[in-house]
Amino acid sequence: MPIIVDIDVMLAKRKMPVGVLAERVGITPANLAVLKNGRAKAVRFTTLEALCEVLECQPGDLLRWEAEVEDVGAA
């Protein structure tokens, strides 16, 4: 998946435990784990807004795009 979620990076910078973030954002720790581990298919803007507010960051600090590397077989 080319969208990379960097919530762990911001948690480390803010020295905030995952449980505290989940509580302040208003989502379950399990749902936050799905999001931060890159297994989420979507994220609501309200959730993204709450994450940014609590972590005092921009959406681009939490999400980034990386091009997928195509597997080119040896010929």
From TrEMBL:
Name the record gives this protein: Helix-turn-helix transcriptional regulator
Residue ranges of every copy of the HTH cro/C1-type domain listed in the record: 21-62
Domain of life: Bacteria
Organism listed in the record: Paenarthrobacter aromaticivorans
CDD domains (UniProt xref): HTH_XRE
InterPro entries (alphabetical): Cro/C1-type_HTH
Pfam families membership: HTH_26
